[in-house]
DNA sequence: ACAGTTTCCCGTAAATGC
DNA sequence: TGCATTTACGGGAAACTG
């Protein structure tokens, strides 16, 4: 009778932040005989933290834990979901009478995530994606008590869709296969290999202090805020392993470069260029990744235009000549350069330099 | 019996921002015979906009205004004070009984300014300063209906005190005299020349889109956030007219520079250095002022260390040699330079460059 | 149309809770 | 103690309002 509906968050539906207003719409899909009948709709919000006891969480009583004089084992935080996994829902109730017949209506929203700080938005959005990717149930609030796995083919489609939706340009085969390998190792070639929820957004990437999704989302944010034109021109290869990067660059003209996202820092982009030494040796150079702070001081296209390497006392030179495979730099980025403002002072801008 | 007291705002007392918590303390200065008598204190806030009819605001009925069929003249916003001139006050009431004697107590805070956004903080602080500089009345809420003038000697003391309080280092005679000239023209030499409230913080500086105080406060903020060590070493001359600047620099060693605040932009600092051309001509160069955005990308001391001018194809050179009058640059700023972080990448930092 | 003012809310930092 | 979560609020921008 009514439709489950969604509160709107700018760009990220189904996520509600405390202290921030949201909107929701309820439509009655039945045409009533009386036209100006006023229907009161009551809205209620389930507001209770949810606890799930996970069945496979067994512990053994151990002599080690002999703290308060008896054998004991503590089950702490048992199955307590993190805020962003906790699903809530808005319910709507209404009651009306037509021709002596009283009808109760009730419906509810799709599961919602409630956060208290925007820092929780990436986690919340991961939950919304996972839920909507893997179930059609309208209101399974216990979903993250035991979340199902996704196949890589399902997940990769969602990831690409994130980029096309939020950044305008999706991910190509090569980019996705780098992501698959990062997430799954060698199994990525098999598209029905399965990814767990935990691997996707809870566990840290080995050796890194962030999960796969946190990393990927930080890149999405970087693109949205600082790289949109460059990204949409497809000039950012972005997701390339260092090995592939070298394979691609090694036979290229000296000064050929490509743009890739940092794998060690959140929300960073770097460029790597190839150089041919006098002895015939091929050398690869990368700059320290640019993050949102640095990109807000100087737009990325201008960094590429102005980048210089100063070897002591020698005329500084911009080593970036051709965007991989062989597009002359200014031909690719020319339109994206920002004009220098004119001032009564000597125009001074920040030029990104590497000192060797 | 009680003391007028003040809510505390970080660093800026007597200013309250809507939606932001504040604290106030009321002390009873009478010692009561019963020790654990509980005294209830009721707090009330005057919350009404205040309107003042300024007497000298006359208008003439004019045929021009013949819009609704009769001669009319509109008195709009008549004497309505701006929010930051509107003074409020917190009142405290209490009543207690000792030995059959009932005593009513009442006191109130010094006048308060209520703002709704930090962007109003400078204006609010100007009001607090002016009030406390020019009256001892504890509660003259109509003060800005007709605010008195300040002598330059009073005002300059307050201004210097702003710098010593918020930035650690006050203003010297030369700096103050530049400020006085800026505010008063040639009259500044006469220390009992009077400054109006309007000239101080309401009217724009001729040809500029901001008032004297807005300009000065933007510099205070810049110092607080980005220039504290340099300021406290007294390395920033800061308030120097361009004429004086040239007089000071022209006979100095080439490469002698000084640091001054921009007079055309809010919250900007620039450096000017002197250069001796081959033909004996003396040339002065200034960079486009650095503002908080640029200074947060690269600290000011590092800018001075790394600043380079590139004349096409020539080895870039740092033209800054001696801080006025004759301190070798690195001797002055050496301790203030920031270390470069070490990275697996080529360390790239933003270098401020002028291209000629 | 516009300027003064308030509201909105992201994002950082600090506080709190477990 | 450390980690997860919330609170606090500055600051930029949009919305409001006379």
From TrEMBL, chains A, B:
Family: Belongs to the transcription factor STAT family.
Keyword Repeat carried by entry: no
GO biological process terms on file: cytokine-mediated signaling pathway; immune response
Molecular functions (GO terms): DNA binding; DNA-binding transcription factor activity
Keywords in alphabetical order: Activator, Cytoplasm, DNA-binding, Nucleus, Phosphoprotein, SH2 domain, Transcription, Transcription regulation
Record's protein name: Signal transducer and activator of transcription
Protein's cellular compartments: Cytoplasm; Nucleus
Name of the gene: LOC115587839
Coiled-coil intervals: none
Residue ranges of every copy of the SH2 domain listed in the record: 235-326
GO terms under cellular component: cytoplasm; nucleus
